[in-house]
Structure formats: C-alpha cells, structure tokens
Amino acid sequence: VLGGFEKKNLSEVINANGYTKLPPQNQAQVSVQLPGTIRSIKVIEGQAVKAGQVLATMQSMAYNNLRLDREKLNQELTASQSNLEFLKLEFARQKELTDENVNAKKVFQKVSSDLQMEESKIRTLQSQIAILGQNIEIGGNSSSSPIISITAPISGNITEVNVTIGAAAEVGKPLFSIVDNSKMHVDLLVYEKDLFKVKPGQTVRFILTNQDGSEIRGKIFSVGKSFENETKSVAVHADIL
Question: The whole model's pTM is what?
Fold first, then answer.
C-alpha cells in the first residue's frame, strides 16, 4: 500500500527560552589604583579599543609622592652600600689583628655586628624599593613623567564613559566599561523533565528577539548543574556558530 507525504520529526525537538551572555573575562571595568585628576579623555562610547590602548590620562599627587619616597630610599641604599664596603674592609682588618692577638676581641665583635646590621638594612631597603616600584607600576606609570596613562585591559568596545576632564579619579571607582562581544554565547533554560535529552555537542537553533527573526545556529558546550532561581530549569550553555 502506498501512502501520501507526511511531515514527521526525525529527531525530538526541545523548545526553550534563554538569553545571550558574556563570560567575565570578556568584560572589564576600568579604574585607577591611585587617586588623581583626569587631564584628557581619548575615547567615546561605542568606540572599538585594543588592549593596552590609552583611554585617558591623569595627574596624581599620590603617584608623585611614591616616586619621591622611592628616590629617598634609593639614596639611602647607595649610602648603606658605600658604608658596607667600608665595614667589610674594617672587618677584614680587625679579624687579622684579632687572629694575631693584637686587638681586643670586643672591637672585632663590634665591627662584625655593625657589618651584619648594615647587610640587613640593605636587604630591607631593597625590598621596600621593589614594593614601591610595583605600586608605581600598578598605578600606571613607571617612567618619570608626571602624567599617568589609563589603559584598556582588554580589547572590545567602550560601553560606558563615567568621567569628565578635571574630575577626580577615585580608587576603585569605574571610569570606563568595555565588553568584547566576540565570545558571546547563549544560555538556554531547559526544564528538569527535558534535561536527560540534552548533552554537550548537540546543535541548537535559536532566534534573537532584537533581530529580524533569522535563525542562528549554535552548539552546546556545557550543561549547568544547578537550578535557576525558582524556575526549576537549568542553564544550558551554547556557543554561537
């Protein structure tokens, strides 16, 4: 018996709603590590930027103070290193006299103690200088220029500019927001009853509500392990192809 043509699903279809999402490493809030005053702004909202690109510049008294502190420590270190060389020579001389029983051991012990203290002081100064150098570099400028460049930590597009020229840049307060949409993926909310039908590697087809209704393909790369709020659904993560 010959039948007619019929529409049949050759594979089971699961319908789900969801939303697009960016991983945290593709989003950035740009702030400063030292307080200062904004001197110039180099970008506008919507502009594409590269990692390391200068977004703005600022002047910072805090940065200048750190640099002065480092210079004072460098001078103190130079003096201590010079004194150390003298103490090493004196230590060798007193040791020779002590070995020949010409000089009292108390004098030799005093020189030996002074030598150890100077060596310890130099190690402490070197550590303090290194820490100050790290703080200055984190602040945004390791050179001698009084102007600090505020740079983009990632490539992407500027979504927010929360600063104006002459405004105070506060530590931890976001000045710029950057997003990189190249790694955007889709989170689909699949109900508990359908979870056993879903696994990584499967193909999904979806439509974005803010577009013209054209179908986009994706591939599941991960299935969540916890329920979303009170919906009894689990987020299924899919890359956009």
Answer: 0.63
